[in-house]
Amino acid sequence: MSEQSNIESILTESRVFEPPQSFDERIGGAYIPSLDAYEELYKRSIESPDEFWAEVADELDWFEQWNTVCSSDFPDVKWFEGGKTNLCHNCVDRQINMGHGDDLAIIWEGEPYNGTPEIRQLTYHDLHAEVCRCANALKELGVNKGDVVTIYMGMVPELAIAVLACARIGAPHSVIFGGFSSQAIADRVEDAKSNIVITCDGSWRRGSVVPLKDNVDVATELTELIDTVLVIKRCNNDISWQEGRDVWWHDICDQQDEDCQCESMDAEDMLFLLYTSGSTGKPKGIMHTTGGYMVYTYLTSKWVFNLIPGKDQVYWCTADVGWITGHSYIIYGLLPNRVPTLMYEGAPNFPEPDRFWDIVERHKVTQFYTAPTAIRAFMKWGDEHPSKHDLSSLKVLGTVGEPINPEAWMWYREVIGNNACPIVDTWWQTETGGHMLTPLPGATPTTPGSCTRPFFGIDAAVVDDDGNEVGENEGGLLVVRKPWPSTLRGVYGDRDRFIDTYFARVDGMYLAGDSARKDERGNFWIMGRIDDVINVSGHRLGTMEVESSLVSHDSVVEAAVVGVPHEIKGTGIAAFCTLASGCQPSEELKDALRKHVGEEIGAIAKPDILKFTDALPKTRSGKIMRRLLRDVAAGTDSNQDVTTLEDFTVLAKLRDEE
Ligand code: PRX
């Protein structure tokens, strides 16, 4: 059932860490200062959700007041109906209107490092001017309210600017992570029916240029939809240019007016689409709307990271804006909280493995949010790298994206946090828009490996297929029983898939797709996925996606892909392929297949282990026996029952290979 590698250690983990006593003082006042305060407010948020969320929404600007707070149930959830607002306004203009235009909004650091790093700092005034220019440029290029704008960029300030410009004019954005391939761009462009792509000439990664514009050029050959490509010059690498289609950002944006009125958006107007992997087919476009998402990401950012404006805090989330973490916790949840959000362009180990700690020290980062896979890599690189730096500015440490193993959790706490920083292990998903299960730094006792308790308003439970709660410490399906403001509103263009994936299996509840258990203290423990989704370095991939890309290669007839425990990535990818007649197994072919998957999906999907086999182990009904393949891939000897295997020799052969 689970792809997770460290369940056993988690199951025996019982250390409890109270929030460090000094936290309240160090942070300048915890919003939720005790477990009792959490429990009292949680109860209220569940019993009177409308009242609770209306109070939060009142902290932000609305052009027109909503009529109802939450007016419907799953699957067609609606929040703040009748309300009109604009999220870009709340991120930027609202701060200026309150007299904080000169405060820092974004701190950006580029990857190249020749003695001094390249740094850009944007105040809310700066951001306003840049966003308005970009918004006006998009209008000039023919983008109207409701048109989907595709964004495929490196981590440069213009990425945040472009996202906010889209929100300003009511054009939903679809951001594609810069590590994805041309085919992946074309697929998403086709699905979203998007005509414009914003990109960069290239982006820096470990000292090399990732040729983003070249990738978009290839995508324009794979789909006819793209008629405009807006290009930011970042790396000055050679690119080809098509007049009439390609437009330089500086040519068009620099000449625009510095003012652009915000569109008045209905609370339920689409804010963005973000593609994510599921168990079947191509990635699906998860839809988020304006009002509820705004309110939820604002509050979770504020309370989970204890953001306090005007206290010299600097918040840094190391994710890429291409993922939901970057949407919610670099841009949309952060800017309304008026704590500067730091964006870093490049790799954690460039030019040296201490780059992150160098950034923390120089910018005096107070809240730091990263993924377990990164923490495991830092552990491996050695304590000497963080030890070289003064990390005493840090006050809250966060993790996201995959289960964290207790060893990594402890290392994070001791070596990075000097035992003085609460760790917030946040469980959530692209679909949930914001944090769902998470400690609150001043309130929640934590245990390594547990994402602890539900956030306010989140009615999470572990249930069986009938929706009944299972017993203490028993594994079951993780569900949410009531809508929350940033619930996904749909799968773009595919209502059936939306219903089937999230609302069909357990009646009336949102099915997360994870298995979990709840312990005697009410803490949740994520055990792994219940579907064919694997989590590679905190990035979500469907095993079917990788299988389809393998069989699209001429030499492969059939492929099965499973997750395999991986020291750094958490889960690695193991692929088993049967070859077409006449094709011989070879190292060259393995390399060619890995490269092929890289081209079809992106480098993150390249199999770590690739085995050729005469046949795949199947049950008599023809179902591939994945648990056996997982065992083979993990190199463990299986004691499992194999009587349903069609051909016993297949398993033996698979084991013997390599
Ligand atoms: O399996 C869970 C895992 O990541 C999945 C969601 O992936 P994605 O939509 O790409 O969003 C990742 C960033 C929010 C979940 O279904 N996951 C995420 N956070 C955690 C986690 N597993 C365990 N602990 C977490 N903190």
Tell me the total number of β-strands: 30
Shape: globular
What structural category do the secondary elements indicate? alpha/beta
Binned strand content = 15-25%
The unreliable regions are 1-10
Average pLDDT = 94
**H/I helix tally:** 21
Query: What small molecules accompany the polymer chains?
Result: adenosine-5'-monophosphate-propyl ester
Largest sheet: 8 strands, mixed
Span between N and C termini? Answer: 26 Å
Helix content: 25-40%
Strand order of the largest sheet: 12-11-8-6-7-14-15-23
Radius of gyration: 24 Å
List its salient traits.
binds adenosine-5'-monophosphate-propyl ester, 8-stranded mixed beta sheet, disordered N terminus, 21 helices, 658 residues, 7-stranded mixed beta sheet, 30 strands, globular, alpha/beta
What this model shows, in words?
The protein is α/β, with parallel strands linked by helices and 658 residues long. It has 21 helices and 30 strands. The strands form 8 sheets. An 8-stranded mixed sheet has the order 12-11-8-6-7-14-15-23, with helices on both faces. Strands 5-4-17-16-18-19-20 form a 7-stranded mixed sheet, with helices on both faces. Strands 21-22-24-25 form a 4-stranded antiparallel sheet, with no helix packed on it. The radius of gyration is 24 Å and the shape is globular. The two termini are 26 Å apart. Bound molecules: adenosine-5'-monophosphate-propyl ester (PRX). Residues 276, 324-325, 400-403, 425-430, 451, 512-514, 526, 529, 535, 540 line the site of adenosine-5'-monophosphate-propyl ester.
